[in-house]
Amino acid sequence: MDRSSLLQLIQEQLDPENTGFIGADTFAGLVHRHELPLDPAKLDMLVALAQSNERGQVCYQELVDLISSKRSSSFKRAITNGQRALPQDGLLDEPGLGVYKRFVRYVAYEILPREVDRHWYFYRHRSCPPPVFMASVTLAQIIVFLCYGARLNKWVLQTYHPEYMKSPLVYHPGHRARAWRFLTYMFMHVGLEQLGFNALLQLMIGVPLEMVHGLLRISLLYLAGVLAGSLTVSITDMRAPVVGGSGGVYALCSAHLANVVMNWAGMRCPYKLLRMVLALVCMSSEVGRAVWLRFSPPLPASGPQPSFMAHLAGAVVGVSMGLTILRSYEERLRDQCGWWVVLLAYGTFLLFAIFWNIFAYDLLGAHIPPPP
């Protein structure tokens, strides 16, 4: 039975008078009697929704959203206010799982702070489409690095090679009119150490985030961090170029770490305190290395070295936009006031940065290095 037929059967048998409400127990009996295909997690959530209603009923529209795999903020409110909680048996007790399902369970506990969300994700997760965005970006970055490494015969501190800055991908203040460079710089890296650090975090954090929150949301967050990184450099460090995907990486990592801290009690990932400390130490060390290369270059250079401000800008995007996205698992962002506030702030920043790049360099008489 398809979804539309199921909904028509429900309305005809359980709400013939079109009151807009359906008894949860009656609906559960209908499901078992007709052997209708409905995930166990959805039945559990249906009970939780009913418990938030004094008459033990569910709004028909909420039932439609549930069957259609759409969740609104009313779901969390209902489950929080319900008189009976969802079953407490965790996914860790789920027997007989294959390798991929165990990985899905691992991702659920790594990313989501609530058991109800973990059940929802675990039961409705499908392997297709796979998390292609973060894997594709990482693969493209590796390929670009290998090509330039072979061409320049240099694998560490590539930015000191005079031919490196001639790449059409690098952001350089002298080429601000070439707008694509504000994004494509993420495919270039200073050296093997920066590429390795970024690729590792993109695969370890970015792929699980994309599996849970989807390609559109995570790609939006990543690219927003990348764009904010180059624009921030063009405002705060006007003479410096930018390379590396650190703006996007720090947006993902900062959003995830902030989400873990704000939901500390609910997160079930092992050794979370130790991992939090290690992540902060590694991220701080990477920023410190970027600051050192910017102001104390270890080798003679023909111009300023890449700026570190993209790291900080990405972190700000992660804590603001990213945290809003991660706290809205399977909820419509457009229904949340906080999302529009974040978008307004980000849009204001973009407009300011665009006007800055058009007018400020000439008005301030900035002495930028000649473009390669």
Produce the secondary structure layout:
Elements (H helix, E strand, L loop, with lengths): L2 H12 L6 E3 H11 L5 H12 L5 E3 H8 L5 H9 L17 H13 L3 H10 L7 H21 L28 H4 L7 H22 L1 H22 L9 H17 L9 H24 L13 H18 L10 H28 L8
Antiparallel strand pairs: 1-2
Summarize the structure in words.
This protein has 372 residues and is mainly alpha-helical. The chain has two domains: 3-69, Recoverin, domain 1 (Orthogonal Bundle); 132-364, Rhomboid-like fold. Helix content is 62%, strand content 2%. The chain contains 15 helices and two strands. Strands 1-2 form a two-stranded antiparallel sheet. Helix 14 (309-326) packs antiparallel against helix 15 (337-364). The radius of gyration is 25 Å and the shape is elongated.
Shape: elongated
Structural class: mainly alpha
Characterize the biggest β-sheet. 2 strands, antiparallel
Output the CATH topology of the largest domain. Answer: Rhomboid-like fold
Integer tally of domains: 2
Number of H/I helices: 15
Key features of this structure:
mainly alpha, elongated, Recoverin, domain 1, serine-type endopeptidase activity, 2% strand, Rhomboid-like fold
Briefly summarize what is shown.
With 372 residues, this protein is mainly α. It has helices spanning 3-14, 24-34, 40-51, 60-67, 73-81, 99-111, 115-124, 132-152, 181-184, 192-213, 215-236, 246-262, 272-295, 309-326, 337-364; strands at residues 21-23, 57-59.
